[in-house]
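Repro:
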Amino acid sequence: MTGDPGSGPTVPATPHPGGAPVSRRCVEPGPKPVVRRLLPPLAAMVFLLLAGAALLLWQQMRRHVADESAARVAAVERELGVDLTNQAAGLAMTLQPIALDPGLQQALREPDGCLASAVRAAPP
């Protein structure tokens, strides 16, 4: 066993079949060197996997919110059109009796006519 003092235990160099040693580097016995070498890449892969999953979820949520918003806007536009159509029909029905009353028509034509008296005199 050779090595620098204070560097910990070392494994002796294994001789090559030709007689020359293969390596003289210090290797600590046990699984610690493997863990030290594999932990950073494994941690990076886990981080990238989690970041990719979070990105996919974010994109899916954003697409869902956009689709839901578009559907609600379309529903509101459709309902507003129906409401405006109903309101116009109601106003047209209200306008017919007013337009057919000759007393009200005369009061509207006169610049200083008393509209209130024409409305009171109009039959129900």
